[in-house]
User: Fold Isochorismate synthase from Aurantibacter aestuarii.
Amino acid sequence: MSTDDFFKVAENQFKVALPFVIYRTPYTNTIKGIFQENDLVYNSQHLEESGFVFSPFNSENNTVLLPLEHSEILTLENPEIVSRVTTPNNKKDTFTTEAKTAHINLVSKALEAIKKDTFKKVVLSRKETVSLTETNPIVLFQRLLANYSSAFVYCWYHPKIGLWLGATPETLLNVTGNRFTTMSLAGTQSFTEQPVWKGKETEEQQLVTDFIIDSLQPHVESLSVGNTETLRAGHLLHLRTKISGILKTKLSTIVKALHPTPAVCGLPKEITKQFILNHENYKREFYTGFLGELNIKEDKKRNPNRRNVENNAYHTIKSITRLYVNLRCMQLTDTKAHLYVGGGITKDSNPEHEFQETVTKAETMKKVIF
Ligand SMILES: C=C(O[C@@H]1C=C(C(=O)O)C=C[C@H]1O)C(=O)O
Assistant:
C-alpha cells in the first residue's frame, strides 16, 4: 500500500465519521491503522479484549476500545513522510494573563498543601486553546511523525467522543507474553548537549521510580531497574529509568496499580487525584490517561543469533500490549486545538517557573500548528 493510499483511507474514514486510530510506536518506521466498521462506542472493562484502548485520566470513567474484531487493520511500512510535509515551526505565545495567574495560584495552593504534609508531589496542568489554519488532522499527524521519531505518535477519532492527536515520550506498560517493561519519567529542561540535572528534578523522578517499584512488587516474579538516563523528547529533555521484569498477575491488575503514576498525578495517589479533580480549572478527559495496543497477537521470530540454526525456523505467536501515557497531546474541535500541558510540583517548585514549563511543553504541539 502506498503512503498516499494509506492516508486517503484515514481521511475518508474521518469524512464518513467512523472511528479510527493511526499510530507509530517510538523509533519504528511502520504506521498502523485500525478502522472501525461501525460507530458504536465499545468499552473495555478488564483489558481482556484485543484492540486499541483510549482511557481517561480518571479511571472511574470508561476506557474506550476500538475492537480488532470489528475493524479493518492496515499497515504502512517505511512511509515517505519527511518529503511530504513541511512543519511551520513558528513559535507563538498564546496564553492569556488570566490563564497564567490561574496556574500560578493553583501551584501556590499545592505548595501550601505540600508544606502541611498533605502530599509530597502533585502534577498540575492546564488547557490552552488556539485557532488552527491547517484543520486536517491527517496532515497534523504527518507533521508530528516527521518531527518526533522517539515518541509514540497518534491520531485517534471517535465521532461520539472526539479527535485527539499527540506525540508522547512516556510508556505506561509494554507486555510481551509475561515479560514487561515500563519507565519512570519526570524532570524537564530544554534541550542542551550536556544537561545538568538539579536536586529538584532527580528527587522528583526518584519519587516516581520508587512508586512504580512498590506498586509492581506484589504483582511480579522478578524486577530489574536500569540506570537513570536523559531522554530527549523534541526540544525537551527528561529523566528516565527503565524498569522491567516478569508479571505474575493479569494486565488489568498491573494497570490499576500503576495508573495514574506520580509522573502525571502525584503522591499519595488518591489524595493528589482528588486535589487535581477538585482544583484544576478544567477537565483533563483523556490527557494523562493511557492509550495503545491491547492484546495484539504478533508473530515473533526466534533470536537469529542463537547457535541452533534449525530452531531459527520456528515462530511463536505472542500476545503484545503497548500502552503509553497521553502527554504532549491536543484535542481538535472544528477550527480549534486544545493543548494540554502540565508539570510536577514538589516542595522546591517555583510557581512562575512551573508556568513557564507548561509554556515550553506546549511548543511540542505548536510546532506543527503555527
Ligand atoms: C505532565 C506532563 O509531563 C510529565 C511531567 C514531567 C515533569 O514534571 O517534569 C515530565 C514528564 C512527564 O512525566 C506533560 O507533558 O503535560
